[in-house]
Amino acid sequence: MRRRVAVSGIGVVTAAGTNPCALWESVAAERSCIGCLTRFDPSEFRSRMAAEVHDFVPPNGTHAARSSRLDRFSQFAVSAAEQALHDAGVDATALEGDGVGVYIGSALGGIAFGEEQHERFLAMGIRSVAPGLALSVFSGAGATNVSIAFGLRGPSISNANSCASGAVAIGEGFRMIREGKADVILAGGVEAPLAPLTFGSFALIKAMSANNAEPESACRPFDAARDGFVMGEGAAVLVLEEWNSARARGVRIRGELLGYATTSDAHHMTVPLPAGSEAARAMREALSDAGLDTGAVGYIQAHATGTRLGDAAESAAIISVFGPDTPPVSGTKAVHGHALGASPAIEAAITVMAMEHGHLPATVNLEQPGADCRLNHVPKGGLDTAPEFALSNAFGFGGINASLVFGPGDRPPGGGQSG
């Protein structure tokens, strides 16, 4: 018998807010947090914008000493996990760590820190390099540092499935709980990619927007004038918990994770299948996994990066699954940027909060949908409705597709809540 899986806690670090309440406020207000890149001089690149986290404070309290030795990537991971545990009403010091796992996805892991240390090496030699470099650059550093910080001795697993990483981590953690192999999983995505060579590599292949004169309107998912994504950084971690366990603890259940599927285009590293057939299969299989038909879905949180090929392929896939009269669709990357492998986790968190608040966010900067993106787009100002079920999509380089299906948790009487 398959066990139910509750979302009992959320933690986030994003350019649009470094806690769930702040992020939701930015999303609901349709406020873009994209600006001119300040982390380094981007003048040599065709794209010079980013969604930077300016107000991040590394975790404090019990873990302050250790966190000060971590790079930004692992600090984001520990901070989001700490928030999520607090939100779930879990005392980390009292956890039975054997039954708690960590699943964190990241496209690039600690590569930006490695780039920084390489510059130091070239300028001043090996003795100038941070001693912890070898322990920071691999993608598993985020998950293992979370495990160490909170004494979580269950499985510590990472993946590097490009921009689908966060969704894959959440989905695989979901399977572990549903199948009775774990009771609690901290699952999500983390990314800290804002370094010159890393950033420049994406600018080089012209994947990012070049609308530098108007950073806040540069990311234009589904719009006829879209010209690429805007890179961001950040993290999101969900506490996934066996439903009856969460109910017995008496905590508010924020949502329910019902289904998950992942497929591969097996086609091209950067070009999706034009008709989106494998992306469509991921959606269908996620719905089948949840035991739902297409008519049950009341909202789709799209991957919606703002690239010409990606948005067109996703639109074709959605129409293939749901027909021309699709459920309301929106994407939120124009608010928080595209934090690569962390984006699907950030958007999963937003999907859960949208269902809680009974408000579907609009796609910021969508003025005129492209002829290849004819979906039922959520209008400006959003829609005040509480869908019973929602689908969240993630698609990455290499043709990696993943979809998650969410259902409601404990909706507060009389409307939404603050975070």
SSE map:
Layout: E1 5-14, H1 20-28, E2 35-36, E3 49-50, H2 64-67, H3 72-87, E4 100-105, H4 111-124, H5 141-150, E5 156-159, H6 165-178, E6 184-191, H7 196-204, E7 234-242, H8 243-249, E8 255-264, H9 277-290, E9 297-301, H10 308-322, E10 329-330, H11 333-336, H12 343-357, E11 389-396, E12 400-408
Parallel strand pairs: 4-5, 4-6, 9-10, 9-11
Antiparallel strand pairs: 1-7, 1-8, 2-3, 6-7, 8-12, 11-12
Helix pairs in contact: 1-12, 3-5, 6-12, 9-10
Explain this structure to me?
The protein is an alpha/beta fold and 419 residues long. The protein has helices at residues 20-28, 64-67, 72-87, 111-124, 141-150, 165-178, 196-204, 243-249, 277-290, 308-322, 333-336, 343-357, and strands spanning 5-14, 35-36, 49-50, 100-105, 156-159, 184-191, 234-242, 255-264, 297-301, 329-330, 389-396, 400-408. The strands form two sheets. The protein has a ten-stranded mixed beta sheet, with helices on both faces. Helix 3 (72-87) crosses helix 5. The radius of gyration is 20 Å and the shape is globular. It starts with a strand and ends in an 11-residue tail after the last strand. Mean pLDDT is 94; it is low at 61-65 and 413-418.
